[in-house]
Structures are given as C-alpha cells and as structure tokens.
Design goal:
The model is unreliable at 8-15 and 208-213 (pLDDT under 50). It contains 6 helices and 9 strands. The protein is α/β, with parallel strands linked by helices. The chain is globular, with a radius of gyration of 17 Å.
Length: 213
C-alpha cells in the first residue's frame, strides 16, 4: 500500500486524489543568474544556509524531491538531480524534466524556484489545501502576478503536457492555460525572490539596509 503524504481529499475529478496520495516536488535551480554574475543560486547562502537547503525545508512534506540543476550542492536530505535536454530550457522544460525524474509518480507535485527563500512548509501546505477541488494552486504576489511556487495534480499536468508541444522555451502560462488553477495570495514576504545581490542583501539584513557600494 502506498504510504505517501496526505495531500488532499478525493475530489472526484480525474485520477485518484485520496488522502493517501503521494506528494512529489521539483525545485527549479537551473537558471543563468545573469544578474548575479552567473553564480549557482542553489549554493548561495542566506543566514548561513544555502538557498537549496531552504527550498528543501519548505518541501518537508514531499516524499521525494528532484532538483533541476547542472550543479550539485551538498544537502542534508537526499535529493535527485535532473537536467533539461537541451539545457536552459526554461521553467516548463525544467518542471517536466523534474517530474520525469521522480522514481514514483506522485498524485500531486509541488513546484518551487530555488530563489524563493521566504516560501516555507506552511506555504506549501496552504497551496495543497487551496488545490483541493481544482487542478492546482499557485502563489500570486500583491500585484496578482503568478509566482514559481505552486502545486499541480499529476493527472492534469499529464493531460496538458500531452498536447503542449516542445517544452523548450515555452512560457509557463501557456502550459498551464487549460488548467483550472486557484490563486493563493502571498502572506508577508513569501513572494520575495533572489534575482540580484541586492535582493539577497535585503533578505539578509532587512529592507531598510542598503548594500555597501
């Protein structure tokens, strides 16, 4: 019997969505970090922990985690590494490469960008709850912009990927457009990400502190 995490009640919409469903996770860490001198973001430290460790902690409820990245960073929890083919294919190619690398197909998959350092396990649990009765749920910031933090039912992801075409360079909204997604407003600074060294400094020291020239 599958002993995976509880990820939601049976909503009677395509596939098995029982309380015994498995939760898988994909961490997207394969970007170019152009505004950070091409550094491997996964290994960047915030308060003494790498961004990858922070992301893994946020996905504590996942049965299995795949990190989509060309680089390997030491982690306390074992993870699987995967890459898009060809590399640098964007978020859609990364998500699908990550899902394909899961050893057991989950009922629900969480997707998280490695630089969203204020997403926590509580955030992910709220997303799982919000996805109940929908095809998935994603965080949206104060301006209503969808963030790279969400959950998708695998049966629905499989449905849309089968007709989406080449994922390389595909915009995420194009893949997700056919899905019934609910939007979850961020709490506090959950939408904060690390796109630059200044962003990292603000998360490290607070918004009122300016980095040294």
């Amino acid at each position: 019997m599958d002993s995976g995490r509880d990820v939601g009640r049976d909503v009677g919409k395509g596939g098995d969505r029982s309380m015994s469903g498995r939760l898988g996770a994909v961490i997207l860490a394969g970007g170019t970090a152009a505004r950070m001198d091409g550094v491997d973001k996964a290994g960047v430290e915030l308060h003494g922990r790498t961004l990858l460790e922070i992301a893994i902690e946020a996905l504590a409820d996942a049965d299995e985690i795949v990190v989509v990245s060309p680089h390997h960073v030491a982690t306390a929890r074992p993870v699987t590494y995967a890459r898009e083919d060809p590399p640098l294919g964007g978020p859609v190619a990364g998500i699908l490469a990550g899902v394909d690398a899961l050893s057991v197909e989950p009922h629900l998959v969480a997707v998280l960008a490695v630089d969203m350092a204020r997403v926590t396990a509580h955030t992910v649990r709220r997303l799982v709850e919000a996805a109940d009765g929908h095809d998935g749920a994603f965080l949206t910031d104060a301006d209503g912009r969808r963030q790279l933090a969400g959950v998708l039912w695998m049966d629905q992801l499989d449905r849309v990927r089968s007709t989406a075409g080449d994922p390389h360079g595909m915009a995420l909204h194009r893949l997700l457009a056919p899905l019934d997604l609910t939007e979850l407003s961020t709490q506090g600074d959950e939408a904060s990400d690390v796109d630059s060294w200044a962003d990292l400094h603000r998360l490290e020291h607070g918004p009122d502190q300016q980095p040294s020239p």
